[in-house]
Design a protein that fits this description.
Largest sheet of chain B: 7 strands, antiparallel
Oligomer: heterodimer
Distance between the termini of chain A: 46 Å
Radius of gyration of chain A: 20 Å
Strand content of chain A: 15-25%
Distance between the termini of chain B: 41 Å
Helix content of chain B: 40-55%
CATH topology of one domain in chain B: PH-domain like
Structural class of chain A: alpha+beta
Strand order of the largest sheet of chain B: 14-13-12-18-17-16-15
Number of strands of chain B: 21
Strand content of chain B: 15-25%
Number of helices of chain B: 13
Order of helices and strands of chain A: HHHHEEEEHEEH
Number of domains of chain A: 1
Strand order of the largest sheet of chain A: 1-2-3
Shape of chain A: elongated
Shape of chain B: extended
Largest sheet of chain A: 3 strands, antiparallel
CATH architecture of one domain in chain B: Roll
Largest interface: A-B, 50 and 58 residues
Chain lengths: ~200, ~500
């Protein structure tokens, strides 16, 4: 119930936006999951990319998305407060809709975005799935990776997360980003991909 | 100075003089604001002090940042890769495997040069964007690093380069001409390069620069006088001659279009010559600006057979290669602008592609995708027509209706003729309506495969397949999800069987 199985493209998150539903999901996200074990499981099994189960991102990723959404909505809330102080319309006609929208943006959207994302670390390829309205499902074979980045922004550092970026020679998807990994996991994945490049070439 | 040849992967800092050089560069940028402040406050006594203060502050800040950056920037020469870690608040780590490094270059700007420092750049197949840079090392250290990286890289690719030189000496045969155009072919080509755009520009120019004409063509009174003169100079010539006059005007415009088309073509493609040499394809063309491009065969990523609305009726086609652009900016190279299929086929084969054969299993895109496109066009254009009709010009409302009908017709055609096929080695994509293009890609040379889907597509069951192609783009829009998965599975199986470094066969 907690971790909805995310089928690659037919993702159907909870359509209901009732408060109860949110509360249940909020409880769910806090269930701790050892994402590293999931990674090793997948690579050991050598599943083809089609039927493989996606590994969800680390649960701190939701918090990160929430903080980002919060930072985006702050100027709008302040703006609505300013408009409210002008007393042009009945009290609350600016603040209430803006606050509701902000709450939706901060509580609900990050959760849905988080659930829409996932990855599969295969033996010879990385698959990255993302997007709510516009879904994308990208597979990068390790044999085509040119170089690998592991980046941490200030917020990501605070939450112990990192973004893994694979660069390819193609014009489309010249860099594929996978955010929301534990820093240690991202580094481990980089090493795995790097060692694969070496063994392939020699 | 630390030994760059040390085998133990220890993180190393760049040259400490580097942050001094960066600081000097920051100071350079700080001089201007300092002068501005000094000038702005020149009337007040404290102007000079404030200016100096600002300058000092900027220098301190720039220097401090440069120092922190230098402290935080380390590089590690590992067994299989070179790694650079940087960032004060954010952390960025980049790892480049030696197998992927194509060249190491040393660069010196003015200020670093005064300090004897170099910037080391590592070029990979990613083609210049997002490459690894290391600033700054001492000249000696930079050169040592370049040698180490080249040595480690060659340890892997030595066998390949040997094979290359071998074939290079064996194939000492004189270059064979694959395609050339004589004057007659060039002129025929020019006829088809007739461009309506030029005609429109000329017509527009006639309007703009009418003051240069000896008479005013927009002076209706003058024209009327000419017609209404005693006996009507033009009128009495009769209707037939008036029609002939109008046709002559059109013919004059058409002549301008044809002549400009031929002129443009002759300038660009004069003496077009494509040869196969030991180093690859060599193309020379141009009348005034003569270009000479050499394209190694293994760098050709995909081939495109193009045509035009009219020229396809006469069996004329063009051929271009998508190549990993290295020196010339564009990734798309025309190798035969105007020829018959029989002439193009040997060129396609010379680039190690197979032209489509009869056994290919061609598949259409999703009909729903085209239907949705037509519905969307209708949903916008039909209300627009209703709106126009409501304003009292019913005949004008025909325009949006005709537009919607045109788009629907186009959708039907595209569904009927756009197709894709997979052979054991290649992917074929036929696209376009009136001037169809056939793209041939080598499955092994694709870089990534992405299936993307909009919310409408998810609801209606069609997707876009995006393929990573070095030097160009390749995509299949509006195909069924099952077909996209089938293609992706097959293509990925081909890609994973060969590493990037082995592609230069």
């Amino acid at each position: 119930m907690c971790r909805k199985p995310i089928s690659p493209l037919h993702w159907s998150g909870g359509v209901s936006t009732s408060g109860v539903d949110v509360a249940i999901e909020l409880g769910c996200v806090l269930v701790k999951q050892d994402s590293m074990s999931a990674i090793t499981e997948n690579s050991a099994a050598e599943i083809s990319d089609e039927d493989s189960v996606l590994t969800p991102l680390h649960h701190n990723h939701v918090k990160l998305l929430r903080v980002q959404a919060f930072l985006v909505s702050v100027p709008f809330v302040i703006g609505s407060l300013v408009l409210e102080s002008a007393q042009m319309l009945p009290a609350g006609s600016f603040v209430i809709p803006v606050l509701l929208a902000a709450a939706f943006l901060i509580i609900r959207i990050p959760l849905r975005r988080h659930h829409a994302r996932g990855f599969t670390m295969g033996g010879d390829r990385l698959r990255v799935v993302r997007g709510l309205l516009f879904r994308s499902d990208t597979v990068v074979p390790f044999g085509r990776v040119q170089h690998i980045d592991v980046n941490q922004g200030p917020l990501e550092r605070y939450f112990g997360l990192a973004t893994l970026t694979l660069h390819t020679a193609g014009n489309h998807n010249s860099s594929v980003h996978l955010p929301g990994l534990l820093n240690a996991d991202a580094l481990a994945m980089r090493e795995a991909i790097r060692s694969h490049i070496k063994s392939e070439a020699s | 100075m630390s030994d760059a040849r040390g085998l133990a992967p220890v993180p190393k800092r760049t040259n400490p003089l580097g942050f001094v050089a960066s600081g000097v560069q920051a100071l350079q940028r700080g001089v201007l604001p300092m002068l501005a402040v000094g000038w702005g406050m020149r009337d007040e006594g404290i102007g000079l002090i404030v200016a100096l203060g600002v300058g000092l502050l900027l220098a301190l800040f720039g220097g401090g940042m440069a120092y922190l950056k230098w402290r935080k920037l380390t590089y590690t020469l590992g067994e299989t890769d070179i790694r650079v870690e940087s960032g004060i608040v954010s952390r960025a780590t980049r790892s480049v495997p030696f197998e992927r490094i194509q060249d190491v270059s040393l660069e010196q700007a003015l200020v670093p040069r005064l300090f004897g420092l170099v910037e080391v750049r590592f070029e990979t197949g990613a083609g210049g964007k997002d490459e690894l840079k290391l600033a700054y090392l001492s000249e000696k250290e930079g050169e040592a690093l370049r040698d180490v990286v080249r040595a480690r890289k060659d340890g892997v690719t030595e066998t390949i380069s040997e094979a290359d030189t071998q074939t290079g000496t064996v194939v000492e045969a004189p270059p064979s001409v694959l395609f050339a155009m004589n004057t007659q072919r060039l002129l025929t080509f020019g006829l088809f390069e007739f461009s309506l755009a030029v005609v429109a520009v000329v017509a527009g120019a006639a309007q703009q620069f009418d003051f240069l004409l000896p008479f005013d063509i927009w002076d209706w009174g003058g024209w009327k006088d000419l017609l209404a003169e005693p006996g009507g100079r033009l009128e009495h010539l009769g209707f037939a001659l008036q029609v002939i006059g109008a046709l002559a005007a059109l013919a004059a415009l058409a002549m301008i279009g044809i002549i400009s088309g031929i002129g443009k073509t002759v300038l660009r493609d004069w003496g077009f010559r494509l040869e196969q040499t030991a180093k690859g394809f060599r193309r020379r063309r141009g009348l005034l600006t003569r270009t000479d491009v050499v394209m190694p065969v293994h760098r050709v990523q995909a081939a495109r057979v193009t045509t035009g609305i009219l020229r396809r009726r006469f069996g004329w086609h063009g051929l271009s290669f998508v190549s990993l652009a290295q020196d010339s900016g564009a990734g798309n190279h025309v190798v035969a602008p105007f020829g018959t299929m029989a002439e193009l086929e040997p060129i396609i084969r010379a680039a190690r592609f197979d032209p489509p054969d009869v056994h290919l299993d061609w598949q259409r895109g999703s009909a729903r995708y085209r239907l949705d496109g037509a519905l969307l066009a209708g949903a916008i254009l039909v209300p627009a027509a209703a709106l126009v009709a409501a304003t009292g010009r019913p005949w004008l409302a025909m325009a949006p209706i005709l537009g919607a009908a045109f788009l629907t017709l186009r959708g039907v055609f595209l569904w009927r003729f756009e197709r894709n096929a997979l052979s054991p080695k290649q992917l074929f994509i036929g696209s376009g309506w009136l001037a169809p293009t056939l793209a041939i890609a080598n499955r092994v040379k694709l870089q990534s495969v992405e299936i993307s889907q909009s919310f409408i597509g998810r609801w209606r069951g069609y997707v876009t397949l995006q393929l990573g192609l070095a030097g160009g783009t390749m995509a299949l829009h509006g195909i069924s999800e099952a077909r996209a998965r089938e293609l992706r599975k097959a293509i990925l199986a081909s890609i994973t069987a060969t590493d990037f470094s082995e592609l230069a066969d």
